[in-house]
Structure formats: structure tokens, C-alpha cells
Amino acid sequence: MRYLVAANWKMNKTVGETLEYLDRFLPSVKDLLSVDIMIAPPFTALSSASIRLDAAKKEGEYNVKLGAQNMYYVEKGAFTGEISPVMLNELDVEYVILGHSERRHIFGEKDDLINKKVITAVETGIRPILCVGETLEEREQGKTLSVVERQIRNGLAGVEKDMAFIDIAYEPVWAIGTGVNATPEQAQEVHRFIRSLINEISKGNDSNTRILYGGSVNEKNARDLIKEPNVDGFLVGTASLDPERFYKIITEVLEV
Ligand SMILES: O=C(CO)COP(=O)(O)O
């Protein structure tokens, strides 16, 4: 299984800033093919990023893929403000982040909607990264594993046989954007649980499923986190906004 290091830029960077970032970032990861890299800019920058990546790939070898931060589960129609999988496919978007805690908590997305999106993503050939994770209150009440189990079972209902085409990101809500990451031990405990759960529900058909950790990952804590046996990569927010910091995290993963 290849590690995946993914950047979730959230609502950051204009088209100009995206192109400036790629100009600085792409040379650093040229010929770096042993780890999968994904960048998810905002929707407005996807097209320009796609063109820039395409041009780079004509000049050299890059293992950098584009991701979307969300999508709707219908091909087209009267869904004001939504983006469809067909629109993402056209831009060579290969990943989609689904069920991010900001979608769940700020925009009220529930497991059944997230599940519909996961199913459509798999059907359209866009690899979903299903995000799960507990709030601080849930952790303090000892509910971490039961919350994660519910989010995974509901989120993956109907796609269990396609598990090898899906990645999971464990992102404890209390660690997102706070500067307080889960300790390697805390991450490993939940990742081991997720691994056994998806092994059970996919009947062993999960050999390409990465379990990413997300939540205040940076160039200083990445090495200790990736050393854990069930941490298969990262979903990085804040630290991915700077191309040098994101590259440093990638190099920490390479060294394990
Ligand atoms: O939400 C995240 C990635 O999806 C994590 O964000 P931070 O790295 O800023 O904590």
C-alpha cells in the first residue's frame, strides 16, 4: 500500500494564489513517485490547477492528483450551488473529500447524505476520502470508537465490496485547526479499530484502503505519527497552505 499525503485547502487561495503555489511546489515533487500526493483547492481554482498539472506532466513525472473538497450525488439538475461528479471528472479530479467535520458540523451534513455521495463517487470513478471523527465532548464521554464506527458503517453502506477504492481519514474534531494533534498513541488506537472494522465489513477486500490521520498535522509531528503501523498518510489543512511546509511533511513520510 502506498502512503497518501493529501492537502485540504478548505476556503483558501484564489486562482492566482493556487498557480503561484503550484509553481513553487511542483518542482520539489518532480520524480517523487513513491508516495501519492493529492491537493484539494477550492472549486474555483480546480480548472486552472488541472491545466497547470497537465502541463507539468508533459514535462516530467509527477504523482500529484487533484481532489475536490465536496460534491453532490446527482449528475445534473436544479441543485443551486452544488457541483456534480461529472463536472469533477471533466477536470481530471481523482479524489473527493466527503463527510469532512466542517461539512457535518457547520453545514449539517448527516451520514445518509454522505453515504449517497460516497456511492456516487465510487460509481463515477472518483476516489472518496471519507472523513470521520469525534468531538471533544464525545471523546470525554468515552464514545470515540462508537461514533467512528457509526460514521463508517453508515457512510459505507452499499459500497462494502468497493472498499479498495475508498480511503478513510480519521480527523478528531478537537484536533482540527487547534494546534493540538492527537498523540501517535491516540491516533493508532482509533486507526487500528478502523482497520479491523473495514476489514470486517469489506470481507478482507480493503488492501488499498489508506487510513489517513488529519488534525493539526505539521512538519514537526508528522514523523512520529506516520511511524504508527495503521497510519497510512495524512489529510493536512493549515500546514498544506504553504508549499514548503507541505513538502516537508511529504519528506517525513518518505523517510519511514
Ligand atoms: O481538517 C483538516 C484536514 O481536512 C485538518 O486541518 P488542520 O491541519 O488545519 O488541523
From TrEMBL:
Binding residues annotated for substrate, in chain numbering: 8-10, 177, 216
Pathway: Carbohydrate degradation; glycolysis; D-glyceraldehyde 3-phosphate from glycerone phosphate: step 1/1; Carbohydrate biosynthesis; gluconeogenesis
Keywords recorded for this protein, A-Z: Cytoplasm, Gluconeogenesis, Glycolysis, Isomerase
Keyword Cytoplasm: yes
Gene Ontology cellular component annotations, sorted alphabetically: cytosol
Entry keyword annotation includes Isomerase: yes
A single BP term in Gene Ontology: glycerol catabolic process
InterPro entries (UniProt xref): Aldolase_TIM, TIM_sf, TrioseP_Isoase_bac/euk, Triosephosphate_isomerase, Triosephosphate_isomerase_AS
Localization per Swiss-Prot or TrEMBL: Cytoplasm
Active site (catalytic residues): 100 (electrophile), 171 (proton acceptor)
GO MF: triose-phosphate isomerase activity
Catalytic activity from the UniProt record: D-glyceraldehyde 3-phosphate = dihydroxyacetone phosphate
Recorded family membership: Belongs to the triosephosphate isomerase family.
Quaternary context: Homodimer.
NCBIfam families to which the protein is assigned, alphabetical: tim
HAMAP family: TIM_B (MF_00147_B)
Annotated PANTHER family: TRIOSEPHOSPHATE ISOMERASE
Function: Involved in the gluconeogenesis. Catalyzes stereospecifically the conversion of dihydroxyacetone phosphate (DHAP) to D-glyceraldehyde-3-phosphate (G3P).
The protein's name: Triosephosphate isomerase
Organism: Persephonella marina (strain DSM 14350 / EX-H1)
Taxon lineage: Bacteria, Pseudomonadati, Aquificota, Aquificia, Aquificales
